[in-house]
Design brief:
single chain; mainly alpha; 11 helices; elongated
Amino acid sequence: LRTLLASSLYKQAEVDKQKGRLQEAAQGFLSIHSLMPNTEVAGIGLLDGAIILSDLGRDEEAILNLRLFIEAYPKSAHQDQAREQLALLYEKHERLPEAIQQYEKLAASASGGKDPQLAAEWHLAIGRLSEKARDWQRAHRTLLAAVEGLSPGDERAMEALLRAARAKDQMGDPRQSQILLGRLLERYTQQTSPTPRMTYLAAQASFG
């Protein structure tokens, strides 16, 4: 009976969402976890409700419910989706350490050969926020990790090398910075059809 009731609540919330009744939809989705947390649709209902709250601009409520989902349903196949949503909300509100923490968990989830390209995307996000937070050591480390996951012809790999070199400069290590700039220039010479962006990055590297 509980399963049927939970399924009925979920379907009604979906109808509300489709008809643009987002407040009602969010309330319906979230009520499933509150009333019947062990049912099959409780987890996805909690996540759907949190995403709608975010769409409605109720960010703090969305954050609380995303964190609740992550803690209550650790084996859910939607964990990464929830973490990405949470990271974006933290970033929106300049809560950089918390955003970085979520991106690091996403990177770990995609690492180990599972999805190198996706892991690189998360490392780029960590590097960007670390630069903003002036955490140069973390920026350097994660930007180089991103390079490893990007294809040799991806101009973002060259940009990440340049930014990692700048991070080394900020750390007071110009020698390592020059080594990274050399790697960038070597990668540039290996391109058969370099993009204008690659040429610009190589020019920046050549000037140190």
